[in-house]
Structure formats: structure tokens, C-alpha cells
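Aim 2, interim progress. The first record below pairs a target sequence with its C-alpha cells.
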Amino acid sequence: MSKARLKSLQEEAQAAVKKAREIAEKAQAEGREMTADEGGEYQTAMTKGGELLEQIKAVKRDLEVLEKADEMAAAIGLPSDDPVHDTIARMRAKSLGLQIVDSPQFKAAMAPFKGGHVPERSAFSTAPIDVKGLFVGGGTGGDSSAGAFVVPEQTGIVEMLGRKELKIRDLISLRRTASDTVEYVAQTSHTNAAAPVPEATTSASPTSNPETGAVVLPTGGGYKPEGSWAFERKTAVVKTIAEWVPATKRALADVAALEGLINDELRADIAEAEEGQVLNGDGSGENLTGINNWSGVQTQTYATDLITTVRKAITKARTIGRVAPNAIVVNPIVAEAIDLLKDAENRFYYGGPFAFGPRTMWGLPVVESETQPVPTALVGDFSKAVLWDREQTTVTVTDSHADFFIRNMVAILAEERVAFAVTRPTAFVKVATNLT
């Protein structure tokens, strides 16, 4: 271990600590806390600095031992040509190459070659050579070997398992509410009596049928036809979607990015649960009633092929639901079936594997959602499904759960409060795809 090595380690450690200090000072100067990325970089730099410090201490100990041995040799009056001085000098200068050529394995491999010259075409190999550090007693894997200075690199990468791509919130109508119950009005019937009306030719007043009591309008009276509308007041109740996980205070303190990671993952869990409720909630207990389970949603049985069936569903949405459908929601398995559809000449309907642009069918975007059940597609005007946010997703941390306070643990809770309703059920059509 040389003084040059010590200087190199010191410079590396100083650079690491300087980087950490600059990150912290920048956040402090801007009057804010460090971001998750800054926290990760800060922690990495400080960890590297600590590891280098341990290496510096080890190098210093080695140099002190050599210096003391040198001083002792000089103090007892050993002449400069004494082998002890040579041993100390060899230990001080001994490099990886010197350890190899001095090893019994290397010398045994060189023995057949007189004069130390190995012919160009001769096979040359050695038995495994145990290369040790300055203090050989610890072995190659111990703290006194070179292995003590090989430390894992902290990359800062945290690879999660992956998540569903969420699409449904982007399709439906989103509103805010400050109440726990949302009311809306839905029309239940509509009689259109509009018709051309001639000018009045008489001033006679209406009469009453003596038998039925019905009003009888005089001929030529110019009376306008009366239409009929009926409405119903409906309610949607706010429900809570929540999840919590435990964590130790030490873990949150030691890993700067951990709390942010947990927060993001909890929020994503809530979003996944919300999409599941909007599409498939069964309405029982605290569940929302999703589109696929909403009373009054239309259905379309399988007819000839997938393309024909979807077109018939679009017709139902237009003629019965009285809407212009804006999307077809399918599971990725159904989307794959659409992509692989071919005509009688074995040509892909949708351009094949090299087609560019969004996938559409009959002019409507085909939206993939893993939450949509595989056997059916969902065609409709998704603006007729409304989600009211009472409380958007929030994350809170507390140690007041159970005995967490005395155990230095915290509960991290994410929750949202929402209400949901399909304001016009006939705007949606569940389509049988004949797939399993």
C-alpha cells in the first residue's frame, strides 16, 4: 500500500462528500426539501464517501505498520544491507505482478523453461494463484485481503414488478363534489308530439266530452300538440378506496427514496382499484356499480364475426342509446384478435405488424384495458359515465396505529373518496366476442 494509493483514495472521498454537500446546499439555498432524485444522489455520494473512508483507514494502518517496522530495524542498528530492510522494501513495493511471479504456482510453471524464456508456440498455464493483500493471514475473502476493498456499487435502481396501463379515467367524465351524496336527474321517458300546425280558422273554445270528461278541441282551432317528458332524481353515494402498508422509521430514514417510492406505489394501487370499480364493481357493500354491471346497459350477441358484431353494437348505441359512441374498450387478448383479423386472401385487415397510427374499428378508437373482462368488448359514449372526486388520492403517515409508536414503525395510508354513476345506461353496449 503506497502513499500514492492513500492520496488517490482521499481525493475520491473528498469529491464524493463535496458532491453530497453541493446537493444539500442547493436545496437549502432554494428554500425547499431535496427531491427524490436529489435525495438518492445525496445518499449515494455519502455512502461512497463512507466506504472510501474505511479504505483510507485501512491503508493508513498498513503504512503505519511498515513505518514502525522500518523504524524498529533502524533503532536496533541493523545495517542497511540487512535482509530485514529488503523484506520491508519488498512488502512496501510489492504489486500484483510481483505477487504472481513470486508465487510457487508461477515458478512451477516456469521450471521447464531454462533461462526464463517461454517459446512462442509453447503452451503455458499455471495452477490457480492465490493473490493476497499486505497481510496474508486473513485469506482472499477476509477483511485483511484485497476483498475488503471491493465494495458493491449502489446504483439507485429499484425495479418494480410492473403495472397495468390505466386508460378508463381518461375516457369517462370527471367532476368534483364537496358532498357525500351526489344527485343527478335522468330522463325516463320522452314523447315527441311535434307536428305541423295549420292556422286557426275558428275562435270556438274547447268543449268537454260528457261521457268521458275528456277535453275536445274544436276543428280548425290551431291548437299545438303537447309533448310529454318524465324525469327521475337519482343519487350516487361517495365510497372510499384505500390501502395501507407498514414501514419502519429506520428504513424511511436510511433510504431517502423509499418513502416517495411507497407513496407512488400506493397511489398506483388506488388507481388500479378505481379502474376495476368503474368497469366491474358489483355494487355490493362499499363497492361502486361499474359499467359492465349497471342496470340498463345494452348487450349485443355474437353475429358472424367480430367486425360485424361490433358494428351492430354501434348501431344500438346510436339508435337506442341516442349517442355517438367514442370508444371500444377491450382486453389485450381481444385487441390481439382484432390485430390478427385477415380477409379471404390472408391479408391483415388493419395493416399488419408494420402499420402505424392508433388502432381503430369503424372509426372508433380501440382502447386496451386489462381490467375489461376477456369475453366482452364495451362500446359506448364514455362521457355518460361520471366519476365525482370527493377527495382525490392522498397519502398520510402515522405511528398511532396499534403499538407502532413503541416499535418505531409507521403506517403509510393512501385513500380516495369517489362517487360513480352511469347517467345514461343505454349509451353502452356489452359486445360478445366469441373469445375465451
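The second target in this work package is listed in the same format:
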Amino acid sequence: MQNLVQNRTLVIFDDPFYKIIIERKYDKYYEVAQLTLGSSVPKMPLIESLILNKWYKFNFHAEKDYSFNKYSKRINPKRLQRISKKESKRSIGTKAQNALKKQIHLKKESIKNNKRFYAKKEKQDLFKLKQRKKIQKHKGH
């Protein structure tokens, strides 16, 4: 059985930066990635080079059990242009927004956990150092 992968790329202006959002659908997975491009209007060669050469920069966030039509028929290019123009006016789809929010939330949680872990470790190290100094002080020199 052949797996069909559908990709959709959106470039939006999220004041003050332009962002590229890539949605990827395959099997029962829906993935979203976002990358900030900068404050100036991105040119098409920049976007193409990002997608073709720097794909590793995109950090995809996956969600399971996404239902969509696996086999879609070919769409007329003119109709595809109209659809993409309409979607670009509408901005990001709600599924993409929710997935990106979830990704940001998970990243924040992992950062919090890391900070907590290192703060606890630093506190323990400081305590051990104080204990060693106290023992050295009371050795009876």
C-alpha cells in the first residue's frame, strides 16, 4: 500500500515578523512546524531554499488520529490558486494553530523542568560544599 503525504506551506505576517508554517498530513498523522523568517518580506527563492536545503530546521509537532481523505483527486491549477489565495486571506487554520500552541506549551514545560532540575542540583552541590567546609573547619588543626 502506498502512503500519500500532503504538505501545505503558509507564509504569514505575525506582527512584527514573517513566519513560515508547514502542515504535513500522512496516514493518521498531522504535523505542524513553524519558523520565523524575519521582519522583511521573504522572497520566493528564500522560501524554496529553506524547504529544499534546510528542512532539518523545521521542528515538526505530531498529532495522531487525524482524519482526512487519503485519496484526493487532481485539482485544476487555477482552482488551486484560488483556494490558496482564499486560505492566505483567512490566515492559519485552527488545527495548525492548536498544534503550534500545543508544541509551544510542551516546549515551555520541558524548559521549566530543566530549570527546576538544574536549580535543585545546584542547591545540592552548594550544600555539599558547605558541609565539606564545615568538616574541614572542625578537624582540629
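The first helix runs from residue 44 to 53. This observation will shape the mutagenesis plan for the next reporting period.
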